Amino acid sequence: MSSHRGNGGSIRRYLLGELPEEERELVEQRLMSDDDLYQRLLLAEDDLIDEYVSGALSEQDRAKFSRRFLHVPELRQDVRSVTALRNYALKTAPKVTTERSPAPTSFSLFDRVRKIFMRPVVGFALAAALLAAVGLAVLLAAQNSQLRKQVEQLHARQSPPSVPQPEQRDELAAERLHNEQLSEELQRQKELLAEESRKLQQAQGQQMQTPTPVPNSRSGVSSVFAFALGAGAVRESGELKRVSVPRGAREVNVRLDLAANDYRSYRAVLQTVEGREVLSSRGRRGGGGTFVQLNIPARLLMPGDYRIRLSGVNPSGEAEEIDSYYFRVLK
Amino acid sequence: MSSGPRKGWDLTQEAFDELLAWLNPEREQAAKKYEDVRTRLIRIFMHRGCTTAEDLADKTINQVARKVHELKTYYEGDPAPYFYGVARNIHSEYFRSRPEEVPVIPEVLSAPPAEEPEESEREHNCMERCLGEMAPPDCELLLDYYREDGGAKIEHHKELARRRGITSNALRIYVCRLRARFKKCMRECLEAEAA
Predict the structure, then answer these.
(1) Domain A196-330: which topology?
(2) Can you tell me the ipTM of this complex?
(3) Helical H runs in B48-167?
(4) pTM of whole model > 0.90?
């Protein structure tokens, strides 16, 4: 006969209805006044319910449990509540494996800090912060790179590189030489044009009809061919200005006489009369603003009819069309 | 904690006050003792298979209260055993009067009554409410307590205890109290939902 003192075994047997009547009454009497025994009863109830819910009871104990617990409404409800609680706990369990290593005998500061960082919430927060930091770093790097490129482009537009790359020096030297040659030619042409301007000013209306050739390359004097155009006058007369570009000419400088000098800068678009654009360029103002000069590579002027659309660039940078100039290239 | 007559009592307030005074001269201590006695009686009736454990416990207290006037003159010592004596008699009457409520169960029972879907949803709602009413650390501990099964459960509980700097037994007792609160909340919630 088991002791009626209420040890764990007796309580479990009491709960499963295994105790004889006398022993059961002794346990119950003690339950009324023994706080410790009553607490152990509640613990034993919970243990039994947990074992039943998790399927850990033997078949016999399961039958006894069913008889004692499941036909009393309050106890049955307790079983259902614990079942629901257990299922909920298992369903909402975080996917983190718990440590299986033996518990240390003492907690060091390192252990405490480590435990803090091993908590899922802390881990997730740190991971999120790390991802955000990486994303921000990538974004800033991309923006930085873009800004650098923009700055370089601005520098390139504003001034030539102070230290050109070795492979660009040769090109630069060639360009400088070319520019020097062109400058010399230009100076010569200016002088010639100045003389022609005087003549043109004297007989302005008629002179516009006649292009003013410059010495061509056949005579070996110049590779630049120049002529002047007046705005719209040819169309009005029904005749196109005719130009013969010398065979050796590398460049054709066209002087576009201005009816008025309203702009600081000009833009000229050379196109065929069919509308195909041949060249678009800034026109250089000359003659105290009386004309605009357009420099055209000679190779672009095939035989045919052409139109030059001249636009003035206003202070806001917008181009405003002023006039058109027509001519015919003969070869 | 209740400090007044329960529903169904036909005792006067005066008799109830006399009962409390017999349990303890201090009113507050008496009320605590009263609740203690009532809770344990309910438990005993439940574990005796009574389907109306609360009513039987109240009936027991009612009968004792009626006799308090006499008891005061001769009874000495802890009142609790007297309550048990009365409860035993009431249980005997209960058995005699309602034998059909005591199931004659074969040795091997079938599974518990099948769940009704509606009941399950109510339980789930009550469960969420009851867990929500708990302090978050307590709720987390209670759920954590059930997150391992089988052989891993013992180690898991040891780990939980270690994290909190308490013994496994202390954890077990604490969780038992949390569970008791949870079960009580569930019962009350389900009664309210069913009403």
Answers:
(1) Immunoglobulin-like (2.60.40)
(2) 0.82
(3) 53-74, 80-97, 117-133, 136-145, 152-164
(4) no
